[in-house]
Amino acid sequence: MFTHQKPLQFTARPDAPDPAFARRFQEVLGGKWGEMTVAMQYLYQGWNCRLPGKYKDMLMSIGTEELSHVEMITTMIDQLLDKAPPMAPDDTTGSTQASEFGQQNPQQTIVNGGGAYPHDSNGVPWSGAFVTASGNLMADFHLNVTAEMQGRLQVARLFHMTDDQGVKDLIRFLVTRDHMHQMQWLSAIEELKADGLDGVPTPEAFPLEEEFDEFSHTFIQASDGEAATEGSWASGPAPDGRGDFRSALIEAHGQIPELAPGDPRLYGTQELQETKGLIDKAKDALS
Amino acid sequence: MFTHQKPLQFTARPDAPDPAFARRFQEVLGGKWGEMTVAMQYLYQGWNCRLPGKYKDMLMSIGTEELSHVEMITTMIDQLLDKAPPMAPDDTTGSTQASEFGQQNPQQTIVNGGGAYPHDSNGVPWSGAFVTASGNLMADFHLNVTAEMQGRLQVARLFHMTDDQGVKDLIRFLVTRDHMHQMQWLSAIEELKADGLDGVPTPEAFPLEEEFDEFSHTFIQASDGEAATEGSWASGPAPDGRGDFRSALIEAHGQIPELAPGDPRLYGTQELQETKGLIDKAKDALS
Amino acid sequence: MFTHQKPLQFTARPDAPDPAFARRFQEVLGGKWGEMTVAMQYLYQGWNCRLPGKYKDMLMSIGTEELSHVEMITTMIDQLLDKAPPMAPDDTTGSTQASEFGQQNPQQTIVNGGGAYPHDSNGVPWSGAFVTASGNLMADFHLNVTAEMQGRLQVARLFHMTDDQGVKDLIRFLVTRDHMHQMQWLSAIEELKADGLDGVPTPEAFPLEEEFDEFSHTFIQASDGEAATEGSWASGPAPDGRGDFRSALIEAHGQIPELAPGDPRLYGTQELQETKGLIDKAKDALS
Amino acid sequence: MFTHQKPLQFTARPDAPDPAFARRFQEVLGGKWGEMTVAMQYLYQGWNCRLPGKYKDMLMSIGTEELSHVEMITTMIDQLLDKAPPMAPDDTTGSTQASEFGQQNPQQTIVNGGGAYPHDSNGVPWSGAFVTASGNLMADFHLNVTAEMQGRLQVARLFHMTDDQGVKDLIRFLVTRDHMHQMQWLSAIEELKADGLDGVPTPEAFPLEEEFDEFSHTFIQASDGEAATEGSWASGPAPDGRGDFRSALIEAHGQIPELAPGDPRLYGTQELQETKGLIDKAKDALS
Amino acid sequence: MFTHQKPLQFTARPDAPDPAFARRFQEVLGGKWGEMTVAMQYLYQGWNCRLPGKYKDMLMSIGTEELSHVEMITTMIDQLLDKAPPMAPDDTTGSTQASEFGQQNPQQTIVNGGGAYPHDSNGVPWSGAFVTASGNLMADFHLNVTAEMQGRLQVARLFHMTDDQGVKDLIRFLVTRDHMHQMQWLSAIEELKADGLDGVPTPEAFPLEEEFDEFSHTFIQASDGEAATEGSWASGPAPDGRGDFRSALIEAHGQIPELAPGDPRLYGTQELQETKGLIDKAKDALS
Amino acid sequence: MFTHQKPLQFTARPDAPDPAFARRFQEVLGGKWGEMTVAMQYLYQGWNCRLPGKYKDMLMSIGTEELSHVEMITTMIDQLLDKAPPMAPDDTTGSTQASEFGQQNPQQTIVNGGGAYPHDSNGVPWSGAFVTASGNLMADFHLNVTAEMQGRLQVARLFHMTDDQGVKDLIRFLVTRDHMHQMQWLSAIEELKADGLDGVPTPEAFPLEEEFDEFSHTFIQASDGEAATEGSWASGPAPDGRGDFRSALIEAHGQIPELAPGDPRLYGTQELQETKGLIDKAKDALS
């Protein structure tokens, strides 16, 4: 169960409106790697977690914190949209204003009346498909690491796209929390291993005897870029402790696919003889 | 530049058709974590990679290999769709057939004429949004680890959803390659660090002095699940080597948000006095 | 800022698993009119609200409550998915089990490992486009009324699709809250009027003198269904208190559209003479 | 059955081309609340209406009229796109032209050759998910009210985003029809009540004795914004005539959710002991 | 401008309800190649057509006719949904009913109350992206041919998926109109050529001297399937009358791509030396 | 099985960066008619083709070639994004730079770090729904013709939107290949006919005796544009060789649709008497 209090987790107050940045900041709100995604992803992982205890509790805490980030960014965008110009500026204005008018997202004014929404920086709606909660924490925590890395990367880039100190302060807070959260997931991964809950390859419980050993440690070269085999993934010990990497040119081990003729009632293109025979039969069957 | 040869990378031949499994197998073809995603993701990461050499070459190799996986699964689904029943079976048939008819994806016959397509197991189209190629290999390689984990998890689950030995053989091949590829990305992450190209927090080049130290190592409790603080992410040394984790209850450090009245020409709801004054002004401006 | 506590707002515990209902219940979680939508819609309306006070505070309260509903339904679906059969049942089982296998959503097991996700009952992802926060409370509160009506309608229908008393109890709670919330929005609409903040037509501040009186109270018959003019919308006093409804057959008041030839560099199909002349000019321009 | 005649319902002729406004006008054509939505929504509501007579006939009339609005806006956008500049203007041009170039939607020229399409002002395609036709007219007519309010709000905003008298004239027509249509749906709602077809709460036929009285009239405070309880939704008579509103702090009435361990063949993370035991059993079962 | 009359263009009355077919029939209503698509596609092509006369008039006629098809299929689906079972049948019922329950689309009852909607047979919403109106009639009429072919193919397949004579009669009508419409577009393509409005390659007005002759008639073998060169596309006269087809193995004519280092403020992975230097500069620039 | 080599099929090197064109060029990469679509469409058609030999082999060759086009355009966009300005230019810069800043796609920098992605020119993700592989080559090859026409049209338009000779050279290559590929599909269509595999109407194997002759050759006028009947599709011999075209005004041949009352448990709006009776029964049934 959730409760809300009115003060924000951190200050969200720009020095001045900026309609172009209001568009861009949507990316870390409603983009694939934005705060909507991490909030919902951690909460669904928490709700679906079948293991009671520290992992489940931690997921609920961080998911709830991310909701507060959604709130701060939304509030910031709302203020950046104050005084967004309704029309193209006249020719007496300068290039900066012209640039910013061009970069504007028209939905922020026409649809939202000067407000943020759960869409990305191009106005594409946030999608529930951005959320993964697989039930396997090892797989999901690796996703969470990259989510915090992609997120920190994006806010770090945005840091250089504005001179507004108020905006930069909120970005600095977000960069810091993404730093913390990267470490949190990396620690949790180590703890999952230490607790014996899973390992590499994930899921570790799948019986390895079902694998084809020939392919389990081989880097397959399907491109002619030769430097690829200089990497540690092409020779030397593999992280599962079960042998060494090797490399090989890609080879075909399978059949040349030939498909059986389809049901003539599907009217696919197939061998003339067969088709005719089958269609006749089908016609008979129809009558 | 790409070339193609007709034999498959591995055998893809079911013992018998199975329309219900033909629907389910779409998940690892055109789902968020399916082969379409990893093929395209690795290729775009390779194409966009601004660092020539082993990483870029490796990305092109594995991306190209994944295209061959797309081909195998497509070929398998095509064969599983042979003899898909056009109509509900009559009452003389058994429960297995009734179950399978119910689970069928009608587009595989009506739209594709008994064929696979780049959609997931519920028929939702594959989306270009599933691909991330951020230009930062550290962030992206962590995504690639989880992609292989989610992928291996899904095929491991599918392994228990069929008794068909032909299908199981292809799944065993896929499970094995996902094992290899998990290790490949884990090794590549270590190599990025060893090469000094990036680290934790990612991106490492963003100046840490811009962060707020108060928040960089603190696990924030926003939920009352107390076990969360038992984890290694709440106390003890943090993976960045820059201090210890601590934990604290979530606190509000920001303002209670109050937004300025909007432009009256946007007709948002606002304070009566202001609204009236502004609307009068706007009306004057209009006339 | 948000906080979370572990007990649920209301009990969510089914008597028994039911994979078919687990699919169906997704509709009121991640469908267009599900709890994800109302939670996010009310929160965004609250955050974007430029009028401090009772409306903004109320929006934050109800939006936060709806998050707790998301949590309860997710928890219920997770339990309905216990023991979902991985394979089609054999022929010794009965029709009920065959029916339920057919109705299953394969992603709930293959992707989520037996868990809920922000998608609808057909597995289509929830979309940020479902959220409207226009900045105009009168317009949005009418949307909120229908959201609660559509929501109550759907849970009322679901009530008849299960015999599970545990599930029915949660549905009864949801039906009740949707009852309350319908009344809440209806009251808030009256209060907006009483406070003079807006009225009919919405937005009331748009100058009526800009309208064409000829069309402001006329029901236009564009179909030959004559009963349409028997309604109160075709004669008698109109709700804006500015006159009576009337009705008229649809008439064309505009031009027959004729478009100017396009830029020949866009290669659209146009008049032969013009095209040739323009293309020659374009070719000249190119050289 | 439909027929078409060439003259438009109202004049759609701009004074001059304007590529930036051509992008923005797409919102009320192919956006969530645009004419495509209302046309299709009213028609599907009409087609699906199981009650013959005035409501069904009225739905068919207004749905058909909205198709004529789709046509007018499309025609207007086509003309606004005449002479859209293919390339960025040179440095001798002024800020207005630079602003407009920036605001352009590139698909209107590259894809459509200078034409409109069923997409919103950011180029996101119109979605069939925007249409709701629930079979319950009371719920749907409330949606229709807000559709006309959101629509009128958007064209009212667009009115201030152009100086073109031809465009403004069409907008004035649209504003007027949205005024009429708001009143039409409000009247129809009253008529549904008068005819005894439904009421509040909707659907009224759902047996109220299934509700939990404790929650049917209580405004639940989940946020600390105290002004929320000043509203008429927190005390005083409720619109259903069945009692008074009251308010209460949110409370947890449900269990702390604990999920059963999942099927080990789904490889979710769960209790160590259980997992091992179950995996051993699963392995036995596999062999 | 459009008008509507109540009788349908053709009878749409099933012999009996059939919830499984009600799901499947959605494909030709709201699927990519369904009636929604052709109705909207032809209308947008007509509206955007800059050439007055027979082509534009014809587009408006057929687009309007297709609206009447949308209406018939919607009406049919509504009737197929009468008596859709709310719950899984008990074990005393037979396999047919179990099959049909499994195949049901739950949204048709839960969301639509027993009605059709603009979604495909898997419940994925119809998309405005399905519509193409490029402004070039030659390109678009070829799309229209395939739209009628894909449409006829789908209804021909559906013909074999039901025994209901009422449904089959409507399908027979649709098959017939798709037959007519295929011929209509093929004739119109010939007429465009005869009128000199465009030709092959389309657009014919693009100056051929800008092409690279080496590649304009060469079938490039990028796969080792040798039979490909037996086709008429690999030797013999080409349809543009400008030479003979030839074939050649694919060859690389371009550079090995090497990208310049990116802006260090984007934190992409790049050469160590460069990165460090650039980051130092960036840090200097920041301070 | 696929392999890759590092040199590009054709040179992809711009003379200079151009962030506005980098956005626009996305259309032919990840738009509906871009290279992602044709690559995937031809490959899926090839994989699903049940007829071994020249058609299947040809599909694999051209599909593979299109992958190389995806690679070239991606590489070009990457280079066009070098030096994309992070912030709006200051007022000392000129209109060209201001225009280009406005036209920029913010995701190309914020998300991709200066790279291309499988999205269109407005940033909407590529969709698997763009791919059609129906199993019927006649239907699909007509789609392939229009795909090459739409593609050539778009690159021809883009040719006039840049002055960069490097970009123009790649466009010239693409225009040329689209020329070739149009002819390839047109030849293949003729060859399908010559091989007797299908014809007009497609699918030819569907028994014509099931059609209604009255409607198979009639152009139906549903709009009052009289010029429509001047076309060859309204009189004279039809392409199927089975008679002459004729034309007729649209007529209603079907019933006025009246739907049966729905299941009262779906709470749809219906006749008062019926509703009440049915609801009473339902209530009885509930108790």
Automatic annotation (TrEMBL), chains A, B, C, D, E, F:
Cofactor(s) listed in the protein's UniProt record: Mn(2+); Ca(2+)
Q: Where is the composition biased (Basic and acidic residues)?
A: 273-287
Q: Does the keyword Manganese apply?
A: yes
Q: Which CDD domains match?
A: Mn_catalase (cd01051)
A GO molecular function term, named singly, is:
metal ion binding
> Which residues are recorded as binding Mn(2+) 2?
E66, E148, H181
Sites binding Mn(2+) 1 sit at E35, H69
Q: Which protein are we looking at?
A: Manganese catalase
Concerning Pfam families, the annotation shows: Mn_catalase (PF05067)
Q: Which residues bind Ca(2+)?
A: D57, S223, G225
Q: Where is the composition biased (Polar residues)?
A: 92-107
The entry's keywords: Calcium, Manganese, Metal-binding
From what organism does this protein derive? Aeromicrobium erythreum
Q: Give the co-factor note.
A: Binds 2 manganese ions per subunit. Binds 1 Ca(2+) ion per subunit.
What ranges does the record give for the region Disordered, renumbered to this chain?
87-107, 226-245, 258-287
